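Table S2 (continued). Query chain:
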Amino acid sequence: MAQIAFDQPEAKGLTAKLANHAADLSFDELPDDIVSIAKCCFLDWLAVTLAAQDDPITKMLISEAKEQGGNRQATIIGDGLKTSVAQAALINGTVSHALDYDDVNLLMIGHPSVITFAAMLGPAERDGTSGRDFITAFVTGTEIGCRIGKQLMGESHYQKGWHMTGTAGTFAAAAAAGKILGLDPDTMTVAFGIAASQAAGLKANFGTMCKPLHAGKACQNGLFAASMAKRGWTSNREILECVQGFGDTQTNAFTPDLATDGLGERFLTRGMLFKYHAACYGTHAAIEAARVVRSTHGVTPDEIENVELHVPSGYFKMCNIREPRTGLEGKFSLRFTTAMGLLGEDTSSMDSYSVEKCTHPAVIAMRDRIKVVANDDLENDHAVADIILTKKNGSVVRQSGAVYEPETNQSRQWSRLTEKFNSLATPVIGADKAGQIVDNVGALQSLDDLQFISKLAVKEG
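Corresponding output:
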């Protein structure tokens, strides 16, 4: 038995407790809204993965996979290449995060769908997993990602520079893949230990190709952890709570009571938030505020003297690239994305995040009028922003933005995400296949397997 690093009584047996929950969760325990949210997440994940088919990241990863070769076990979404489940997890996971257009959950401070679906889909396709089991595996992974994410590791882990999608995400992927592979509680505990030794991802790489790689490696490594645990690999079964374990080395604020609060009763999957701007979620509240300044207050670009943009101080380490030079950097620039909102540019379009747009004189002129100010007195510590805009005539316009409340009307959410899916997927796979995917994902819990969806999610030609 390992030495426990923490005094809290909830720390004892924490890894096993979370692993037991992951292994034992069944579809029949899932509330109806959680099933609906899972289907929304899958549809959105397919949309953003298909939309990234022409991204250089996709082409490089597929070229590498073709050179390496591999058993034809799983499908690469969009391209249609058949390769090993490990390669598919890496590629599908990375590509789905390439546009930074995928969902988030602030209870994790990360992106649950990109670290679960790609880890699950390959083995599910290979093994003939049912839609019910696929949904259950996704919820399992999301719950574990959130509970090991912000709930256990706290803001401290994230503010140190760790990308929670890569770190806690590896545990989430191990739980999701382990569920597909049918791991029992003891084996799932071992899988968590294996996952811990691979969990990584640095925020210093935000704005580069390495950020989406964090998601792909989490999927590949989590799947590896689950697969090797099933084969009999060994690991420390108290990896979260032990001395020199994950918590001891990665955070200054270990909170096992929050990690287990409401376990099995309170579903953190309800915290899923979907993106309607193709940029880092930390920029969305400011974009929304800027759009209101333009639409409701009627402020035109020529009237603007300067803008103060107040955001939580943590955003300075997440999305405050002052002078972005590339589209990727633009997605992590509060000044650039707010300028786009004030100019009336389409922030939902991938084409808006390009070298040309970042270097356009009108965008630079507006961007340079914006000063980002750290303000930890804002009502919420995430997904909020305040704009204080001074016009050339001396008048001041104030507008707040907030995007931290999940949608509770699942019918409305499905409708909005279907529209997003069609806009992103139809140019890649055609309207007929896009429509069939929407129908099949909508009936996911009734499907015998996922193979038909995998065949549909392949670009034409």
